[in-house]
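job 3f2a | input accepted
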Amino acid sequence: MQLTRQQQVQLIASLAAVKRGMTPPPEILDYFRLKELTPRFSWLDVWGEEHAHAFTVAGVTETRVLSEFKAAIDKALSSGTGFEAFKADIQARLTPRGWWGPKVVSDPTGKWKDKVVDFTRPHRLETTFWSNVRSARAAGQWNRIQRTKSSRPYLVYVRSVAERKRPEHLAWVGTILPVDHPWWQSHFPPNGWGCKCGVQQLDQEDRDQYLQQDGYSDQPQDFGAADYVNKRSGEVTRVPRGIDPGWQTNPGLARARTLVKQLADTLAAVDADRARHTIAKLWQGNWPRALAKLNERVHLPVAASKRAAEEMQAKCDVVVVANDVTAAKTGKHAAVDISSFGQVQNILETGEWLDGGDRSIRHVLAVIDGVHWVLVLRRSPTGYLQVRTLFAADAKRHRDIRRREDRFKSERDD
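job 3f2a | predicted structure (414 res):
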């Protein structure tokens, strides 16, 4: 099936943007920069949804070398340059470290024999570059799709621009489904090594018009699935036929699912200053906006407070907020937007803590830049700190809350 006129125009525009070296959407850089360096011997060592938060290059077992790859790809993403510019950059970075040319690498786990890694081989270097770039672009696109799905709630699978096209991928071209349809969890492109398929977002009118034309369908072809055994871990994964093993996840959705777990695990193990820095960096990006629009519930770290953990007898000092809470509060209160939740750390550090006598609940009042904030924390039944609500009020509301909390404490003390 040929691209429609609309798809051709948008594709040409995107290619022109890259050629001109335009700054990419921030969602792409957010996705890539939040990845943690994960040196590994084999590409099988980082599997499925792990790629959403782990940056790895097969065979690179030294963190300092891996950091050079990440910096070079980041530079290419930021400047909109292509593979040739990346190749020259990475050659300059790897040569002083003795990694430009054949390099014998040992398996740190001892499971496999030593192997020779050679990044002067164009195919290997291109695979490393494009797999990271396309995954980052896909994740950024998914982020934007989530933010705009209320007005354009459908996606259509678009034909690859690659010379060689997989027959299964060609069969999926023209498939139109709602943004949150389960099919996109596994079939959102790229769907394999070198896959250049894409999606286009549609509104209701576009969707209805396309489905009246030949080559479009709201019933995706199913080629079945097969079990794939990860030779490194022994893990068995069910992979849809037509998708390369390891590519059966949606980069953006996987990022949303793993972001909280990754951050929570990391933050729980680091000092408070580093935790606060990491959280602040997260809330300066665009992921919180996308998470707010997800149908599934996820919790996002929003602050770290040793005081809250001690006073409320919580398991750790990381404070999280559920995406449905951010969505509800931004929809209800005009003065509250997603970025307002980035103020939680400041509210906890500078605000007035009220003690109503209940260790599972804390009200914190703060005035920041003339705005009277009301933050309510709760200790979940499982022992973790959560934002129950956040809203902007006024001085009178602050006084009313103080009086109410004093009354509650007095009644409990009696």
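job 3f2a | The longest strand covers residues 371-379.
job 3f2a | closed
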